[in-house]
Every structure is written in structure tokens, then in C-alpha cells.
What we know:
Cdd1, Mitomycin resistance protein
Amino acid sequence: MPPKKALTRDQITRLEQLPNIGPSIAQDFRLLGIAAPDDLRGRDPYVLYDDLCRVTGVRHDPCVLDTFISAVRFVEGEPAKPWWHYTAERKQTLAASERK
């Protein structure tokens, strides 16, 4: 049985308790050495996504990046938001980096 989603940030002990994070994304984080929610603090979700693609040898759906952004932001104190809230930000950020 999957862990229940935490009601408050201080109740979170497992990755799967984070908003938007299910078993698959939690496993992706573990593959990257992220074992606990607090391990996300201070991490760059764009770098995590690039690392995941490199480690697995697969270019993952960009929605995975949106989910990574949502998890990092939540752990760092932002309110929980659905992963798709970050899609526009991701598109804008990646477009800006391609112009450089």
C-alpha cells in the first residue's frame, strides 16, 4: 500500500508523500541519489532532469521536469501546486537557455 500523502510539510518522511510524486518519480529520484524529501533542498530540478536522462540513456517526457520543479519548490517552502503549474516556466526557461 502506498504511503499516504502528508497533510503538512513537517509530516513528510518519504518521497511518495510529496505532492505530485508517485512511485515512478520517487524511483527516478532514488536513481539520482535522492533518498528523502530533504535531499531535494537546494537542488536544481533542471540539472536533476538532465542527470536522469543521462543516467537512463532516455530523453524523458518534459512533464517529468515539471514534476521535479514542483517537488523541489515544495520542499523549499512553496505551497503545493500541481506539476502542470510549472509547464510555462519550464518552457520559458528552456527557450531562454537555447537563445544563449
